[in-house]
Specification:
This protein has 127 residues and is α/β, with parallel strands linked by helices. It contains 2 helices and 8 strands. The termini are far apart.
Length: 127
């Protein structure tokens, strides 16, 4: 029986660029790095209030990464989408979609990670 989600893996072509994006642009904590027995270089990240990690994998033997549009995304809650978007745009990562208010009153927006993985930002309505 499954107990809990531990991590999600995304493969990348440029590990240094990915580390910069997930750590310095998104502000995730890099929890560890290591090399797997087969030679993959791995970096793990987590959001402050989450236990699950994101595993970023660099393994050039698998060939180049091709992320199809709308294939997958990670979603993060933010306090203020406008402020977050201003900061990420200043770092070279402007919003790729939104902000858009949903029927529930949340505001959503998207930015793209270096390989094209979508990152959804969700600002929940104030209670």
């Amino acid at each position: 029986m499954l107990k809990r989600l531990l991590h999600t893996r995304y493969r990348v072509d440029d590990l240094d660029k990915a580390i910069h994006f997930y750590r310095d642009v998104l502000g995730l904590e890099m929890t560890r790095t290591h090399e797997s027995p087969r030679g993959s270089k791995l970096a793990f990240f987590k959001a402050p209030a989450s236990d699950e990690e994101i595993e970023i994998c660099y393994f050039p033997k698998s060939g180049p990464v091709h992320v199809q549009p709308d294939l997958t995304h990670l979603a993060f809650e933010v306090d203020d989408i406008a402020a977050f978007a201003e900061r990420t745009a200043a770092l070279g990562y402007p919003l790729s979609d939104g902000p858009t208010e949903t029927s529930s009153g949340s505001i959503i927006a998207f930015i793209d990670a270096p390989e094209g993985y979508e990152i959804e930002l969700i600002q929940k309505p104030k209670s």
